Amino acid sequence: MIIGVPKEIKNNENRVGMTPGGAKAYIRKGHKVLVETHAGEGSGFTDEEYKSVGCEIYTDVTKLFADAEMIVKVKEPLASEYGLFKEGQILYTYLHLAPAPELTEALLKAKVKGVAFETVQLPSGELPLLTPMSEVAGRMSIQVGATLLQKYNGGLGVLLGGVPGVAPAEVVIIGGGKVGTNAAKMAVGMGARVTILDMSLSRLAYLDDIFNGRVTTLVSNEYNLEDSAKKADLLVGCVLVPGSAAPKVVSEDMVKQMKKGSVIVDVAIDQGGSIATIDRVTTHDNPSYESHGVVHYSVANMPGAVPRTSTIALEGSTLPYGLQLADKGLEQAVLDNPALMKGLNVYEGFVTYKGVADSLELPYVDPYTLIK
Ligand SMILES: NC(=O)C1=CN([C@@H]2O[C@H](COP(=O)(O)OP(=O)(O)OC[C@H]3O[C@@H](n4cnc5c(N)ncnc54)[C@H](O)[C@@H]3O)[C@@H](O)[C@H]2O)C=CC1
Ligand SMILES: CC(=O)C(=O)O
User: Do residues 295 and 314 share a domain?
Assistant: First the structure.
């Protein structure tokens, strides 16, 4: 198969969909890899390194899309890329379609076969291609939050860990999954007081066990959410209903009751955001804004800020599934691997993921009726 790797164009997105090591794995299996010039530079991989393992370097991204049968990316296509796809092309990347009607429409119109990293799902419920970036974003959420709490960034002017004689900051994490657990690890490590809210009692029990009394766990209900938001110096939003638009767990009224200068980091922004007052996606260039006296941060590609770590971590998970797509072709690969079938969000003009169809009020088509 001919595989194309374009340079990412989202604001400050320095990850790349394939490293030279990954390219070597595809090429060893007889595939051809086309890489846009400078695509890997932000992650520390030069054109020379790609060439040395047998990749072809393209200067013209339009030609790269035209020549490739499968595109391997990191972030969802932006408007300037919509016109580059061709019918039947496999697109293997993060898509986050539930809050993105225009992108969904563009992919349906182009009749691409879109496999979204974030909905590939194992029978256990685990999301193996989301996990590595959730680990990065969870850890980053605390360092970002700690920075925004500094006075000159609009924050309260408190140090997460406090100092002897002064109480530490209160960190509230809503959603105790992969992001939440990694956020808690960092916050506990920095000496903050940490509360985690989740709907799942078994998840709270697990967190209670692994943190061994270092965090408070609370059931996520309206009373606990309101009470926790009032106390929070830093609030991290990281709930997920796979593939669907994020539920708004913190209302505008709750935000109004938060301390002036407290900070919200809404990691769930890539699924539309989990806090009612998050009304925009921000970028690494200009990552925060103020609303009701509270600093809001809503960058949808947080791991893009640490691209070397993130690219290598991401490829560790995406490569085995990418090789299945390339070796067998999309149809056989998804029939053989139900986890990969769960990743199929759009297929030749149809929405094939229920959460996306429901969120966008579009018709859903069971992919097994299209691919047999
Ligand atoms: N902004 C960014 O750069 C990045 C964003 N993300 C996003 O972070 C979000 C969280 O991802 P993960 O932690 O991997 O998901 P996860 O599936 O591991 O955890 C989500 C947790 O939310 C809980 N939950 C669901 N609804 C809830 C509610 N109403 N109240 C309380 N808890 C609720 C679930 O029980 C689960 O424990 C996703 O939207 C993901 O795409 C991930 C990486 C980077
Ligand atoms: C998960 C995601 O969207 C990201 O890593 O950018």
Answer: no
Look up the ipTM and state it: 0.99
pLDDT digits (tens, 9 = 90+) for 240-292: 999 999 999 999 999 999 999 999 999 999 999 999 999 999 999 999 999 99
Name the one residue in this structure whose structure tokens are 């919509």: 82
- Condensed to tens digits (0 to 9), the pLDDT of residues 312-365 reads 999 999 999 999 999 999 999 999 999 999 999 999 999 999 999 999 999 999
148: which 2 tokens?
């925004």
Does 264 belong to an annotated binding site?
no
Please indicate, yes or no, if residue 125 is contained in any of the structural domains: no
Euclidean distance between CA atoms 324 and 337, whole angstroms: 9
The answer to whether residue 126 sits within a structural domain is no
Pocket test for ligand 2, best of 8, 10, 129, 130 (most atoms within 8 A of CB): 130
pTM of the model as a whole: 0.96
Q: What is the distance between the alpha carbons of residues 360 and 351, in angstroms, rounded to a whole number?
A: 10
CA of 102 to the centre of ligand 2 (A): 19
Most informative mutation of 8, 12, 78, 94 for ligand 2 (most atoms within 8 A of CB): 94
Task: State which amino acid sits at residue 215.
Answer: V
| 98 falls within a domain | yes
Residue 236 falls within a domain, yes or no? yes
With a 6 Å cutoff on the Cβ, whether 241 touches ligand 1 is: yes
Instruction: Say yes or no: CB of residue 270 within 6 Å of ligand 2.
Output: yes
The per-residue b/e assignment along 216-244, b for 16 or more CB within 10 angstroms, e otherwise, is: bbbebeeeebeebbeebbbbbbbbbebbb
Same domain, 296 and 335: no
Looking from the CA of residue 249, the nearest atom of ligand 1 is 29
Cα separation, 91 vs 369, whole angstroms: 20
75 is in an annotated binding site: yes
* Structural domain harbouring 84: 2-120+307-370
69 and 157 both lie in a single domain: no
CATH of the domain at 67: 3.40.50.720
Report the catalytic residues: 96, 270
Question: Do 163 and 185 belong together in one domain?
Answer: yes
Residue 337 labeled ligand binder: no
